[in-house]
Amino acid sequence: MKTTETITIGGAELTFETGELARQAHGAVLARHAGSAILATVVAGPDTGERRGFLPLTVEYRERMSAGGRVPGGYLRREARIGDHEILTSRLIDRTLRPLFPAGYDREVQVLVTCLGADAGSDLESLAILAGACALHISSLPFDGPVAGLRISSGAEDGAMRFLAPHKARARAAMDFILAADRRGLVMLEGGAAQVPAERVLAAIDEATAALTPVLDAFDRLRAAAGRDKAAFSPPVPQDPAALADRLLAVAGDDIDAAWQIADRQVRPDALERAFAAGRDALGHEAADDAAWRGAKKHLIRRRTSAGDRLGGRGLTTVRPLTAQVGYLQAAHGSALFTRGDTQALVTATLGTADDAREYETVLGKRSERFMLHYNFPPFAVGEVRPQRGPGRREIGHGALARRAIVPVLPKKDDLPWVLRVVSDILESNGSSSMATVCGTSLALFDAGVPLAAPVAGVAMGLVHDADDYVILTDITGDEDALGDMDFKVAGTRTGVTALQLDNKLGALPRAVLAAALEQARVALDEILDVMDATLPAARESIAPHAPQVTQIAIPKRTIGRLIGPGGRKIQEIQSQTRTRIDVRDDGRVRVFAKNAADLAKGAERVRAETLVLEVGAVYDAQVVTIKEYGAFVRIGAHEGLVHISELDHERTDRVEDVVKVGDEVRVRVQGADDRGRLELSRRAALTVE
């Protein structure tokens, strides 16, 4: 039997249905808004008895092209590999759900979210998060729900907050965040802002969190009416980690202290592991249980960190040593090497023409992307060996986050003639490589001559939370990320925030912690920006000589067809003859790209010639192309006309060749046109014009 719950958020009516579709799944919900429909299903695998030590959760969001009334492209005419947008939405859902599974739950879980109907007025990402969260809440799986998520955006002009804004409506938003929360606090956050102060960001988060309360209530009502009984789950009861950690310190405390203070990451992990191993040997059977031993080590590290004693001896607010270089690769249009402790990003910026824009297909139509940022994380960056099979979900997610941080400071589309591609290759990693990418991207674009509104830096903040006490860590390492309770990435300029991404392991994050972390990050960003400003504070005055040269010309709109020519033949001819690429806009703006200044000048001149509009009475420079006994034919740009022999000179002319020859440059006045539309020109009338 179908059960339905309907709620309204910000004027948008959302409906959640269960009981009619996918009845063999352990939980299934169909979420609707306007013409959009998204089905979320949850299934847990059998309990094999094998303890994995982690939660094998798989979340996959897919869009059916039929949802938007479209036929997929490609030879097969069906959906193939998962796209970047689908991967990013899958990650949003995963990060909403994963923190709320009980500790120790390790059955395989698969959450499949499928877009079956897509309306241009819907926010499909928010609807997908809501469908997945609701399906898991009403399912038989143990889950500490309900949780819900939505998008909140604010207008660039009026600052008004809007929930569930569709794609087109948020193109000019000053803030655009997707967040998830339960009744205790924030669970997940991701989004961008146009250099917005932290206070406004927090206010937007508060408003969105409050708006989720009726959604959580609706999920509870749906569960009460149609939810399945939760499967019994008894988490394993580990040995007390605090007691075992104390005994470990008693037998190996000095060795652990010595290893703890080693700043070199190449040395510290091995030294610390040797100290732990020696302590385990000394404890004998007390440390025989692997799970208990891991718990004791984790407890010890967290306890010392909470006391302000970080691995490597750093202070809680200390940023690792920073270095930055620009122009590192001479052949690139722009490049930067940014190093923070043991994390290093080599970033290149490439300037392309309009033809280099990325065209891609979505369920709601084709889109174009003029700024691409690709993040690569090779295995050698962490001293590992693994197959190379293209970018994974993590790489796509990190690239999208770094891109989001830079977009607010890019020049406006009309002021940015190039297509931009940035590539970040992580050469070393010990945490926060996505934020190193943000710093490196800002410097590489400056090096390429791209006039960003301001440099952007990024830092990852961590947290160790114990009961009501907590400490916030600035610039966390990989170990601190793995053993801590929060990974909060903050990117911004000196003016304000440009991007945020929050993941936490507490289930819900108190607001006070978020506010304190933002304030602490603000101080760190200023310190990083000082180093970046000392390296290259603004864009270079000129682009690299081997980068595409560009000029912009305004032509009358009525001449666009003449420039392009039938079937595009004229513009193709110009591009071929001048070795240029020409981008023509509907409003009459023409951009000419070339590899060198000489070709650029030739291409621009041809465009001006082809689009020249002659005016009666005006004087123009012309070239003689043909001589007849009755006059000379001359060319003015793309126009040809006759200068009659009687209009060549003030004196009587017997032979045209006595006055002009083929190839001569002459000045002529436009007299008008005859009844057949042919130009009538006069050299004689132009002789008296200064």
Which features would summarize this protein structure in a list?
690 residues; elongated; Arc Repressor Mutant, subunit A; 29 strands; alpha+beta; 6-stranded mixed beta sheet; Ribosomal Protein S5, domain 2; 8-stranded antiparallel beta sheet
CATH superfamily of the largest domain: GHMP Kinase, N-terminal domain
Using the alpha-carbon principal axes, give the shape.
Answer: elongated
Q: Got a strand count?
A: 29
First-residue to last-residue Cα separation? 91 Å
In CATH, the topology of the largest domain is named Ribosomal Protein S5, domain 2
Structural summary, described in words:
- This protein is of the alpha+beta class.
- The chain folds into five domains: 204 residues, Ribosomal Protein S5, domain 2 (2-Layer Sandwich), CATH 3.30.230.70; 73 residues, Arc Repressor Mutant, subunit A, CATH 1.10.10.400; 214 residues, 2-Layer Sandwich (Ribosomal Protein S5, domain 2), CATH 3.30.230; 62 residues, Ribosomal Protein S8, Chain: A, domain 1; 64 residues, Nucleic acid-binding proteins (OB fold (Dihydrolipoamide Acetyltransferase, E2P), Beta Barrel).
- The strands form six sheets. It has an eight-stranded antiparallel beta sheet, with helices on both faces. Strands 1-2-3-4-6-5 form a six-stranded mixed beta sheet. The chain has a five-stranded mixed beta sheet with strand order 11-12-13-17-16.
- Helix 1 packs parallel to helix 2, helix 5 crosses helix 6 and helix 5 crosses helix 7.
- The termini are far apart.
- The model has no long low-confidence stretch (mean pLDDT 91).
